[in-house]
Amino acid sequence: MSSRAARSLEILSRYIELVCIVSGRGVRDLWNKVGVEGIVYVGNHGVEYLNDGDVEVAPEVAAYRDDVKRVLDHLRAHADAPGLVWDDKYYSASVHYRVAEDTGAARDGLAHALVSAPGVDSLEVFWGKMVLEIRPPVGVHKGYAVRKLVG
Asked: In degrees rounded to 5, what are phi and psi of residue 149?
């Protein structure tokens, strides 16, 4: 984050009751990238909240950690390709393929490996812009997090 943007967030937090950053990144990674005191951090698509330096996790997601890890490990073993970026966010995972040598082949390899991934049926799988997202099926997402904060 630029110093100008960080400064703007600091100023806003003095005048607005709730200033929040909501991201798909893990909440600690988000804090490390932004690092502005006095604002709320929500990471991992609404699953994690940073509260006074402690990470609070939506309780319903913990049961899915092993499935997320199994699926991610399976994909690494069966679909790894040059340029894939693996992001294990503990309660969810992302595989970015925008810098893969052959993005179409990388996506096809991931899709093929997903079919036989153990535990994948218990999770939600989303294809985004050059990314595969694997998340617990608990209905928590960025919009849910925003509604929870302002509600």
From this structure: -70, -40
Strand partners for 136: none
| Percent of the chain clearing pLDDT 90 (strictly above) | 84
pLDDT for 88 equals 95
Q: Which residues pair with 41 in a beta bridge?
A: 21, 50
CATH number of residue 50's parent domain: 3.40.50.1000
| CA pair distance 45, 80, nearest whole angstrom | 25
| Domain housing 45 | 3-60+140-150
Helix (H) or strand (E) holding 63: none
- At CA 131, angle to CA 64 and CA 125, rounded to 5? 35
User: Is 96 in contact with 130 (CB distance < 8 Å)?
Assistant: yes
At CA 139, angle to CA 53 and CA 51, rounded to 5?
10
97 and 118 in a common domain: yes
Q: What's the confidence (pLDDT) of residue 140?
A: 83
Instruction: Strand 124-128: give its sheet, edge to edge.
Output: 85-88, 93-96, 131-135, 124-128
| Statement to judge: residues 130 and 144 lie in one domain | no
Q: How many CB atoms lie within 10 A of CB 70?
A: 16
| 75-80 average pLDDT score | 95
Q: Are residues 72 and 114 in the same domain?
A: yes
The DSSP output letter for 44 is G
